[in-house]
Amino acid sequence: MSRDSAESHRSFIGKHKLNDLTLLVDKKGKIAKLYGADHRLLPLSRRVYIIIDKKMNAVYKKDMGFDLLPNQTETLLGEIGRNIK
């Protein structure tokens, strides 16, 4: 999830040929709040990477604060490959 636009998500999916992947748009930060990723003062979210399977189980979670996950695309695609069947 991110507060990025749906168009930004579509561009990312197209760029990486991730047609079977769904990315959540969370413009108002409601989902970020549910997962404890919201910033209590500013209208932004911490970088918490969460992969949720089809049964709605969180199979991967990494809280990076405001830092980027090293090699984020490669790392997340690897985790998706390991955790999503």
Strand residue content: 5-15%
Average predicted confidence as pLDDT: 83
Q: Determine Rg (CA atoms, Å).
A: 13 Å
Q: Helices and strands: which structural class?
A: alpha+beta
The largest beta-sheet arranges its strands as 1-2
Distance between the termini: 20 Å
**How many H/I helical runs?**
3
How many domains, as an integer? 1
Major sheet characteristics: 2 strands, antiparallel
Order of helices and strands: HHEEH
Number of strands: 2
Helix content: 25-40%
Q: Which spans of ≥5 residues are poorly predicted at pLDDT below 50?
A: none
Shape: globular
Give your account of this protein's structure.
The chain is an alpha+beta fold and 85 residues long. The mean pLDDT is 83. It contains three helices and two strands; from the N terminus they run ααββα. Helix content is 32%, strand content 13%. A hairpin with a 5-residue loop joins strand 1 (48-52) and strand 2. It has one domain (6-83). It is globular. It has a two-stranded antiparallel ribbon.
Short description:
By secondary structure, this protein is α+β, with helices and mostly antiparallel strands. It is built from 3 helices and 2 strands; from the N terminus they run H-H-E-E-H. Strand 1 and strand 2 form a beta hairpin.
